[in-house]
């Protein structure tokens, strides 16, 4: 496959836009132009990010010069989009999970269904389902960039939950409301 030059790509885009304009469908033409703008912004952001990461001065060169690029969500998503990411799926899944604020363990990935099962390795605090859902969602978001072949995330129960917070108050007085003890009230 030969590389397309910027001039060739620009010419092809103009031809497609001209064909749409000839059909007289202003909405389709405007929508197509917007898609082209969004894609240009996306790729421009990716290229700018690569330049930024490569241009950072380092005290010493990293052992893996691609490491900073592969660890960046935007760059990783572009590499995955075009099948250029050099790491295999298990490595990219581990990379995504290691960046999560809540520790989780890979409990198995089924490539046939795209479902990744995760197990929480530490308590999520109050035991609220919202916290469990936020962990699952954070994992799904990270995996979308680093391992798009993961299309579903299931969170299994893992570490034991912390006990519920007990409300401790003062002990009721042995005297009744009238100030007499319950034995004297009889």
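^ Assign residues to that structure.
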């Amino acid at each position: 496959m030969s590389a397309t030059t910027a001039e060739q790509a620009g010419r092809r885009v103009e031809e497609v836009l001209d064909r749409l304009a000839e059909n007289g469908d202003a909405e389709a033409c405007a929508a197509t132009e917007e898609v082209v703008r969004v894609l240009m912004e996306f790729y421009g952001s990716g290229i700018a990010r690569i330049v930024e990461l490569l241009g950072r001065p380092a005290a010493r060169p990293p052992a893996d010069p691609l490491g900073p690029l592969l660890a960046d969500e935007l760059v990783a998503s572009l590499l995955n989009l075009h099948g250029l990411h050099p790491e295999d799926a298990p490595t990219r899944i581990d990379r995504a999970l290691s960046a999560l604020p809540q520790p989780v363990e890979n409990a198995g990935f089924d490539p046939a269904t795209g479902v990744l099962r995760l197990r929480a390795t530490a308590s999520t605090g109050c035991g609220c389902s919202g916290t469990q859902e936020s962990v699952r969602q954070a994992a799904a978001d990270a995996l979308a960039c680093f391992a798009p072949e993961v299309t579903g995330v299931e969170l299994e129960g893992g570490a034991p939950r912390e006990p519920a917070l007990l409300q401790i108050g003062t002990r009721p007085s042995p005297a009744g409301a009238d100030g007499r003890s319950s034995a004297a009230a009889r």
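Residues 169 and 175 are 17 Å apart (CA to CA).
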